[in-house]
Design a protein that fits this description.
Oligomer: homodimer
Shape of chain A: elongated
Radius of gyration of chain A: 27 Å
Number of strands of chain A: 12
Strand content of chain A: 15-25%
Chain lengths: 352, 352
DNA sequence: ATGAAAGCGCTAACAC
DNA sequence: GTGTTAGCGCTTTCAT
C-alpha cells in the first residue's frame, strides 16, 4: 500500500501480471488481448491500484483531449450558462475543459491563449473575443482549432446569432406597440463587433419604418460597466430622458444592462413599462423571473453550444484544412412585461 | 514558417542558438545564464517561434500546475460566482483551472474525480461535495490535496460559512419582526449535510425563542428541483399554507429556491412581504436587484475563495502532512424587501 | 497475441 | 556557466 509514495506505473502492473508493458497498454486501450491475459492484467491493475497517467499519454501521442474555454466573465449568467452547455457537450465526447476569464481585457486574453497553447489544448472555444487579429493568426499558425461563439467573426470558424435580425425583431415589436422615439443603449459588456452589428439592426429597423435614428437617443459607453456604477452615466441617461423629444422606449444590447436600466429608471421615478418600455438581448434565465419579466431577444444557447462543439470536434478529429465554417442562428423575440404601448400624451404630461 | 508542421522543440532552439538543450532550459526557467548566451537563446526562441511544452514539463517534474474545480451547477449563480473568484486567485498564483459539473449526482462526481486524477491535477477544490466517504479516501490515498468549499466536512480540509449561525440570524430577524409561525423550506439544490446544519440552526433559533418547530411547517424535498417544476410540490406548499395554523414567514435554505418561492407565492395570490415574509441564504447577485430585493443570509464569497485557495496552495506547495485545516466563516444578514412584520389578524382574515 | 525498443519534449543531477 | 546524460510514463512500430 505505502510504497514510498510513487504512484504505480504501467511497469508495476506489467510485473504484477507477469507480462510486458505493451501488453498492459494494449489491454488498457482495449486492443489485441487474449481473454486470459486480459483478466490477468485487469486483476493486476486493481491489485496495485493503477491509474493511467494522462500526462505521459498526452506527451507521447502529441495531443491532449482538453479544450480551452475563454469567456468574458463567469459571473455573467449568459457566459456561465453557455459555458455549462458547452462543457456538457464536450464531456459527452470525452474532452476535459479548462476555463479562463478574460474580464474583457485583450491583454488577459493573450495571456490565456498563450497558456492554453503551452498546455497543448486540442482546441479553443472563445465565448467572447476581443477581435484581435494577432490572436487569431497565432492560433492558426499553431494549427490549433478555434471556434468563436456568440460573436460573429469572418476570419474564423464561428457560430452566432443573427444580431441585426434580432434587434430588428425587438425594435419592430416596439414600433408595433406604437413607439416612435426608441433609444439605443449599450455597454462595453458586449464586444464592439457585436454591438456594432446590433446597432446596425437598430438603425435599419428604424429606417424600415421611415424613421431616422436621432443622435440624442443613443447612449453607448465602452467600459464593461453598469449604469449604477457610474454617476456620469446616470447623468447622461437623465439628459437623454429630459431632452426635447425624449424616448418612450429603450432597446438595450444585453439583458444585464437592460435590467440595470430598469432598476435605474425606477429609481429615477419612471415606471416600466407604463411610462417607458425596455427590450433586452440574450434571454438569460434571470429575464424570465416574474418580478423581472424582461421582454428580450433570445439567443438559442443550446443550439449555439451544440453547433460550436460540433464544429470544433470536426476540426480536431478531422478536416483541419477545410474552408471556414460559419453558422448564423435565428434569434427569437420573447415578449414579457417590460414592454407596453407608449403613454398617451395626456398621461405623459402628468409627470412631475 | 511551414516546417512539416512539427512544433519547434527545445532542441530546435538549442541548434539555432548553438548551445545545448539544458542551456536553453536554464534560460527559459530563468536560472544560471550568462547575459551573452541569454540574449542569444532568447533570440533563437523568437526566431524559431518556440513555445515550451507544458505536457513534457509536467511529465518530467511529476506534477502539474492545474487544479480541478468541481461544482454542482455552473448555471447556478452561487457556484459560478464562487468559481470565478476561486479561478481568479488561482490564476494569480500561476495555476490553471479545469472545471467539472457534477449536476449534484455522485456518480458524476466520481467520474470527474477519476478524470482529474488521471490528469494528475495538483489539487482539487470541491465547491459541492456529495459527502461520499470513498471519494475522499481515494483522494487521500493518491495524496492529492482537496479542500471542500462552502460545505462543512470534518474529514477534510474545508472552509465554509457557519450554517447554523446564519440561519439563526435569519430566523431571529423574523422573530423580531413579530413572526411566530415560521416555515422551513429546502430543496436538493443544497447538499444534505449543509441542509441538515441549516435545519438545526432553524430549530435552535426557534427553541431559543421558546418555540417548537411544527412538523407541518417544514417542506423539504431531495431532488435538486424548484417548486415551479413540480405540481406536487406546489400542492404541498398549498397544503402548508392552508393548514390549521399557516406560517407567516419562510426561511429557505438558498436564494434560488427562495426566489422561486416568492414567484410561486405571488402566482398563488399571496403578497410578499405584506402577507408572507421570505428569507433566503447565499446572497447571490440576483437577490440584490430592486425588483427582487430578497432578505438573505450572505456568504462571504470573497473570503471563502481566498481561504480555500490559500489552504489548497499550502498543501500543494508544502505541508501535505499537516492536520486538517478547517475554517468557519461568519455569515451576515442582509435585510431587504422580502421581509416585514406579519399581517394583523384582521388584515389576514380579509383574504379570499 | 505478445515483447523489445525507440522515442514524445522536457528537467535535473552531475560533470566539466 | 555550460554540456552530458538519464530518465518522467506512456504509445507505437516492428519482430517474434
Amino acid at each position: 500500500m505505502t510504497q514510498g509514495h510513487r504512484q504505480p506505473t504501467i511497469l508495476d502492473v506489467a510485473r504484477a501480471a507477469g507480462v510486458s508493458k505493451s501488453t498492459v497498454s494494449n489491454v488498457i486501450r482495449g486492443v489485441a488481448a487474449s481473454p486470459a491475459t486480459r483478466t490477468r492484467v485487469l486483476e493486476a491493475v486493481a491489485r496495485v491500484g493503477y491509474r493511467p497517467n494522462a500526462v505521459a499519454r498526452n506527451l507521447v501521442r502529441r495531443r491532449t483531449t482538453t479544450v480551452g474555454i475563454l469567456l468574458g466573465d463567469l459571473a455573467n449568467p449568459f457566459y456561465s450558462e453557455l459555458a455549462k452547455l458547452v462543457g456538457q457537450r464536450l464531456t459527452e465526447n470525452g474532452y476535459a475543459t479548462t476555463i479562463g476569464n478574460t474580464d474583457g481585457r485583450s491583454a488577459r486574453e493573450r495571456e490565456l491563449i498563450e497558456s492554453l497553447l503551452e498546455q497543448r489544448v486540442a482546441g479553443i472555444l472563445m465565448l467572447q473575443f476581443s477581435g484581435e487579429r494577432s490572436a487569431l493568426n497565432e492560433l492558426r499558425a499553431q494549427g490549433v482549432p478555434v471556434v468563436v461563439v456568440s460573436c460573429w467573426e469572418e476570419r474564423s470558424d464561428c457560430v452566432a446569432v443573427d444580431d441585426a435580425a434580432g434587434v430588428e425583431l425587438g425594435v419592430r415589436h416596439l414600433l408595433e406597440l406604437g413607439h416612435r422615439r426608441i433609444a439605443y443603449l449599450s455597454s462595453g459588456l458586449v464586444e464592439p463587433k457585436t454591438d456594432q452589428a446590433r446597432f446596425e439592426g437598430y438603425r435599419s429597423a428604424l429606417a424600415g419604418a421611415g424613421l431616422v435614428c436621432a443622435e440624442n437617443l443613443i447612449l453607448r459607453w465602452e467600459h464593461p460597466a453598469y449604469l449604477r456604477s457610474g454617476h456620469d452615466l446616470i447623468r447622461e441617461l437623465q439628459r437623454l430622458l429630459c431632452g426635447a423629444s425624449p424616448p418612450t422606449a429603450f432597446f438595450v444590447s444585453n439583458d444585464l444592462v437592460a435590467i440595470d436600466l430598469i432598476e435605474t429608471l425606477e429609481q429615477l421615478g419612471f415606471e416600466v413599462p407604463e411610462e417607458l418600455s425596455v427590450v433586452g438581448f440574450d434571454n438569460i434565465a434571470l429575464a424570465g423571473l416574474a418580478r423581472v419579466s424582461l421582454t428580450t431577444v433570445a439567443q438559442p444557447r443550446d443550439e449555439l453550444a451544440r453547433a460550436a462543439v460540433e464544429i470544433l470536434l470536426g476540426r480536431i478529429e478531422g478536416s483541419v484544412m477545410h474552408p471556414v465554417r460559419q453558422v448564423r442562428l435565428a434569434p427569437e423575440l420573447v415578449k414579457r412585461g417590460s414592454t407596453a404601448a407608449p403613454p398617451t400624451v395626456s398621461a405623459a404630461s402628468r409627470r412631475p
